[in-house]
Amino acid sequence: MRLSRYFLPVSKDVPADAAIVSHQLMLRTGMVRQNGAGIYTWLPLGHRVLQKIEQVVREEMDRAGAIEMLMPTIQQAELWQESGRYEDYGKEMLRITDRHDRDMLFGPTNEELITDVFRTYVKSYKALPLNLYHTQWKFRDEIRPRFGVMRGREFLMKDAYSFDLTEEDGRASYNRMFCAYLNTFDRLGLTAIPMQADTGPIGGDLSHEFIILAETGESAVFCDKDMLDLPAPGLDLDFDSDLSGEVAKRTTYYAATDEMHDETEFAKIPQERQVSARGIEVGHIFFFGTKYSEPMNATVQTAEGGSVPVQMGSYGIGVSRLVGGIIEACHDENGIVWPQSIAPFEVGLISMRPKDETVSKVADEAYETLKAAGFDVLYDETDERPGSKFNRMDLIGLPWQIIIGPRGIENGVVELKNRKSGEKSEVALEKAVEMVKAG
Ligand code: P5A
């Protein structure tokens, strides 16, 4: 993408109510524009990141055997009346009336809708296990939307729903999602800690929140430091195998959010391993058995010919929240430092002298070479001062910068800068391509 033709409204002014660094940086880099309390337009740079995160999440859901679909944002009140949550959900639910005076709502989550899909089409245990997911906008009329996209009212969530015949199978489905989540967050460059959590309006008695540590996090969290060093299960994990050991490895450690915190248990950890910090909840998984299937009559035939309510769980990842969460974890004094896996562009190509014919020709060729190598490239061929070009590239945080100037051309090299380490090297373009590929 040529910067002169892109839409990148970088700005110096940050509204005073942008209290945390991720919110400030998202506004400064022109990733989002606020349209109302907790409601945002995703501008091109922000939209690219959102889509890249969604894609990583999708790949890991697919790897774990979940199947993608898409449910609507607007739902009928009847389904929620059937489950009993229509009244319970309270003011967080945005209720809407259509022209025929029908009660509708903007979905805050989709347990009811997916249960309705399930009961319509699935009648036999033979179709199980089944895990269906989508990535769709949700609306929750949060009492205090704040911190930009981290606590929005309209936000993008990936939500998956598992269906099993027995409670034991249901727990196996839960374990698959538990492991898939660890792999997903790892690919996003994050250390996410599974913590025992309150189940709130979703329900059930088994639930883990996935928390990344950040000073600006909304929740107080407590855990064992040794947990932080555990590697993710890995992309070669066999999702058909028994994963209870992988889960147990992590759940034997103490880790809880403030609602579930038990000071006596926490005190049993050696003091030097006690982590008491703040965290951001980037995912939340639940197993709630027949909470929805029973009242909504979602049953399956067993091998013996009987009929039982299906066992269910639900699994959420805050895709739009992750954009802010990742910036909280990945920035420095000059701006954002994107992990390569979800950077809006992998390479920022800077032409030092766009008016110089030779420089511009070499830079144009480099642009074509980098694109042909499969990279997303933002090519700054604008006529601005080099200083402001460098600052802007640092601010938007692309993992690699390639700088083309007259001196390098004379020596047959480009300058390659790694945004994270700040390391610069003068190498031939082919070598730079290799280094970017290696990540
Ligand atoms: C699980 C999937 C659920 O809604 N039903 C379907 C279950 N869980 S949850 O914990 O309530 O939400 C899942 C994740 O969504 C993100 N999230 C938010 N992100 C931005 N703004 C909000 N207001 C918001 N509320 C929830 C979180 O990452 C949460 O873990």
Task: Summarize the structure in short.
With 439 residues, this protein is an alpha+beta fold.
Comma- or semicolon-separated keywords:
439 residues; alpha+beta; BirA Bifunctional Protein, domain 2; Rossmann fold; 2 domains; nine-stranded mixed beta sheet; five-stranded mixed beta sheet; 13 helices; 23 strands; 31% helix; 28% strand; globular; binds '5'-O-(N-(L-prolyl)-sulfamoyl)adenosine
Gross morphology: globular
* Low-confidence region ranges: none
Taken together, the total number of domains comes to 2
CATH architecture of the largest domain: 2-Layer Sandwich
Give the class-level CATH name of the largest domain.
Alpha Beta
Overall residue-averaged pLDDT value:
96
The rounded Rg comes to 24 Å
- Number of alpha- plus pi-helical segments: 13
Q: How large a portion of the residues is in β-strands, by DSSP E? A: 25-35%
Describe the 3D structure.
It is built from 13 helices and 23 strands. The chain is an alpha+beta fold. The strands form 6 sheets. Strands 3, 7, 8, 9, 10, 11, 12, 13 and 16 form a 9-stranded mixed beta sheet that branches. The two termini are 21 Å apart.
Element layout with pairings:
Layout: H1 21-28, E1 32-36, E2 39-42, H2 44-63, E3 67-68, E4 74-76, H3 77-83, H4 85-88, E5 94-97, E6 103-106, H5 111-121, E7 130-139, E8 154-164, H6 167-187, E9 192-196, E10 206-213, E11 219-224, H7 244-251, E12 255-257, H8 263-266, E13 274-289, E14 299-301, E15 307-309, E16 311-318, H9 319-329, E17 331-332, E18 335-336, E19 347-351, H10 357-372, E20 377-380, H11 386-396, E21 400-404, H12 406-411, E22 414-418, E23 424-427, H13 429-438
Parallel strand pairs: 3-7, 19-20, 19-21
Antiparallel strand pairs: 1-2, 4-6, 5-6, 7-8, 8-16, 9-10, 10-13, 11-12, 11-13, 13-16, 14-15, 17-18, 21-22, 22-23
Helix pairs in contact: 1-9, 2-6, 2-9
The structure holds '5'-O-(N-(L-prolyl)-sulfamoyl)adenosine (P5A).
